Amino acid sequence: MNREVAFKIADAVMYEGYMLYPYRPSALKNRQRWSFGILYPLDYEEVQRGTERSSMHTECLLRDTAECKLRVTLRFLQLAGKEHPDAGSEDEASDEPIPRSLEFEPDLSRQPARGFEFSFPEKISPGQKQEHLRGAVTTAIETLAAGLLKVTVDVRNETSSSDNPANKGTRDCALLRAFLSAHLILETHAGQFVSLLDPGEEFIEHAHACRNIGNFPVLVGTEGERDTMLCSSIILYDYPQIAPESAGDFFDATEMDEMLALRVLTLSDSEKDQMRSANDRVRALLERTEHGTREQLMKTHGAIRGLRPVTDDAPKPASPPWKGPSERLMEWNPQADPTPVEDIVIFGIRLRRGDSVRIRPQKNADIMDIALTGKTAVIESIERDFDDRIHVAVVVEDDPGFDLGVLRQPGHRFFFSPEELEPLKLEVRDER
User: Fold this and answer.
1) For the chain, is the Cβ count within 10 Å smaller at the N or the C terminus?
2) Residue 32: pLDDT band by 50, 70, 90 thresholds?
3) Residue 200 structural domain
4) What is the CB-side half-sphere exposure of residue 24 using CA atoms within 13 A?
5) Same domain, yes or no, for 106 and 229?
């Protein structure tokens, strides 16, 4: 069974949008959260208009056997509100939602649709209040062909949007009684789910007839296994994986760990203080990033998968036909080191690798020229190209990825012509 794998993927989906860079509760994007998988109260006015949903509908295919069993897990988050909110308070994003989960095993004996109701009662703790939630789940099993079932699961939020009629139309109030990031995990014993993305010729018509509203069922686990399906509120492919290089969650299922880690390190002290005061999960993100090792950052810089061995007798790419024999001998090898230059004189000052300069871009060729203007940098190398032009590679001093630039990793080393650099050394060396 792939229960543990499914829950790990599901957690990434469930906390999508939980808190986004710059991870400050005061940021506008973090005051308007929960974009995916929201099941609002049934009487919320946006549900009545048809612009939001209070339910989700799932249909998938299951290859049946005599001993086949099915387990369904419904998971979502419940947002806890302030017990006595301040008037005009905008710190909703600092509330930490409570994970909710319930399991049931539908009867696969081809009976009519069966349902049950569930609820989570109101709970008040110091400074916090959890609203009363009510919902219902209905399951139906239909035989499509010999050994093939269609499983249907409907989830509904039957909570009232507010006890106070004056607040029924407000989104903030509706969110307190909504199922946030709602999703299902389906598991089978002695059966097999059919991929809805790649069902094969045998099941393609039945797969195309499946209707899913508010979720996207995909297979989970090792490729080829068919015992677990995640009905995600975010579009995924079959067999989604958490990258092994990822040390933790940045609350973005499409995250780029290196970029986000480096951006967190560039936040000001006041912004980091806001992160620490937000809630436990955001504080843990900051602490994990600040205490991350250089080795972990290098892991997230990029991974190459699917390499295959190259033998000596493997065909080698031919030189472009437009090149003559002499040009072919002079072809540039991207794996070879560039032609090194020991030092260079800029404004009468001789500079070498390791010297400090200030960046003064002259061309303004792109946004990076504007962003790096005035930055202090360290010369990493001085190189000469085939046209005998000199290029100075620098690493910006306040780049959190400074070490990556020193190691010549892409994205942290920048090239400038000598006239675009201002020496910071006071010593003038003789050019002779």
Assistant:
1) C
2) confident
3) 3-83+92-244
4) 14
5) yes
